[in-house]
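The following block was generated as part of the benchmark described in Methods. Ligand: zinc ion.
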Amino acid sequence: MLKKDLDQLVFLQDLDMMLDEREEVKKLGFDVTGQKMLEDERTELANKISRPLLYTYEKLRKRYKRAIVPVKNSTCLGCFMKVPTSLSVRGREDAGVFTCEGCGRILYWIE
Ligand SMILES: [Zn+2]
């Protein structure tokens, strides 16, 4: 369940980054297509994610381009701080949503 939430959040972030990209392209005076489709998809996806998690994500998005980052070799790939082993164990067991002590980003485990 939780893993699914995080997967959806990663997908949401992808959509947000695609939408951001389109904004940049638009600023340069080019036409963009598919905007509406992406926005609809984003709305639909956002509705599936639990409110508190979405709220944390939206808050982090104001600070970082990437609000959710992978953990590899017990290291947060957002700020490269070591993630405590106890957290890593629980994170891998899907025991909750964890944020990095260094940068505050939402973590997901890819190892
Ligand atoms: Zn971090």
